[in-house]
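Exercise 7. Given the encoded structure of a 394-residue chain, write a plausible sequence.
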């Protein structure tokens, strides 16, 4: 007899496939999106019943975020934390005394034991395991947190809008992290916060690069997998990274005046040096992002990214100004061997080594000098990379 979970899986996948129209170039992005919405709706009764039968895990109680009038001078962030590995990095981050910490994706790894069930048991189990760590609980009590997800806490490796169970995954995420009501009230987990008085306003823009994202295009089959990833930039300009509603929201947020903007993307933005997941794989969407950032209502700009299991500092030009990106990954699941990985991935936009041991990042803001200092720290709190940048008023 087929289980309810398996039936729900087959139903969602069948609806998504039947609703997507085939075109000469494959399944159109608009048709695929329509099929996914229908699949989402078909699963609503199943998940309504499931909520009555299961208790979703919740994170340990957390410290409140700084008030809107608080001047921020030190923020920390990181990504890629496996729930079954050492949690030693939380203590190292606390030693830096950040005013808040952003955990920007792969906050747990809930997909590795997933069996394809609609209940997402492995995802819920991974969150429950993370909640039990005393080091994590101590960190939560001390340091306020903001979060977004990446693929391994969204549902499956490199997943996007084609994930049949994304609504349930979002419920699990928002329950665990006690997401703000504005996040709960709309699809996806993107959000924005403004901190500080006029002249010292920091806008934090946290993007969702999973819930709405079109599928990436892959290299044709070869006997040998490409050494730096399986994807090629999409030829289909209708593919989306953020989806229409999130793009509209981002435009509205960038129209607000700010003195410094921190734009969080779970995947890298600037680099063209690899063929894993990045904004490079949707070139029309990356150009749209750059135009949107260039048109922001004043202030400096810094991109914060994760995902790569290695970190570094990147630079490109945005209009007539420098645009910087700080990538921090991983808290406890790193590649290791910085020298080998730096040589393996030459990149003219990266101004540091590719830091391949465990790391986390900080941003220190010097309001008097209109400058921010980016740092990557290792697993004993040692400095691994550092740059100080003055920003223009734009």
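Solution.
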């Amino acid at each position: 007899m087929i289980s309810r979970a398996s039936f729900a899986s087959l139903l969602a996948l069948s609806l998504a496939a039947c609703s997507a129209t085939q075109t000469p170039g494959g399944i159109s992005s608009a048709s695929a999106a329509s099929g996914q919405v229908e699949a989402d709706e078909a699963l609503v009764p199943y998940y309504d019943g499931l909520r009555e039968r299961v208790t979703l895990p919740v994170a340990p109680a957390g410290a409140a975020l700084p008030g809107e009038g608080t001047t921020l001078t030190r923020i920390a962030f990181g990504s890629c934390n496996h729930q079954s590995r050492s949690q030693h990095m939380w203590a190292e981050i606390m030693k830096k005394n950040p005013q808040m910490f952003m955990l920007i994706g792969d906050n747990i790894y809930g997909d590795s034991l997933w069996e394809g069930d609609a209940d997402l048991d492995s995802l819920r189990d991974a969150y429950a395991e993370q909640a039990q760590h005393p080091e994590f609980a101590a960190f939560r009590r001390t340091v306020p947190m903001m979060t977004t997800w990446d693929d391994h806490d969204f549902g499956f490796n490199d997943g996007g809008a084609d994930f049949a169970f994304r609504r349930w995954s979002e419920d699990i995420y928002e329950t665990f992290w006690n997401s703000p009501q504005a996040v709960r009230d709309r699809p996806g987990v993107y959000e924005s916060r403004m901190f500080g008085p006029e002249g010292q306003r920091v806008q934090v823009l946290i993007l969702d690069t999973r819930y709405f994202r079109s599928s990436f295009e892959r290299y044709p089959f070869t006997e040998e997998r490409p050494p730096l990833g399986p994807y090629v930039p999409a030829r289909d300009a209708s593919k989306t990274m953020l989806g229409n509603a999130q793009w509209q929201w981002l435009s509205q947020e960038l129209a607000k005046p700010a003195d410094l903007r921190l734009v969080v993307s779970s995947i890298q933005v600037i680099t063209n040096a690899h063929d894993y997941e990045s904004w490079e794989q949707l070139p029309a969407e990356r150009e749209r992002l750059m135009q949107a950032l260039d048109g922001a209502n004043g202030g400096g700009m810094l991109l914060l990214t994760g995902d790569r299991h290695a970190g570094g500092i990147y630079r490109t030009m945005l209009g007539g100004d420098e645009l910087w990106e700080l990538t921090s990954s991983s808290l406890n699941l790193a590649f290791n061997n910085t020298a080998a990985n730096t040589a393996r991935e030459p990149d003219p936009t990266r101004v540091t080594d590719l830091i391949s041991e465990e790391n986390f990042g900080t941003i220190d803001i010097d309001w008097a000098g209109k400058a921010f200092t980016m740092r990557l720290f290792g697993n004993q709190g040692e400095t691994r990379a550092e740059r100080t940048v003055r920003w223009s008023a734009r």
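Remark. Residues 4-19 form the longest helix (16 residues). Students should compare their own answers with the one above.
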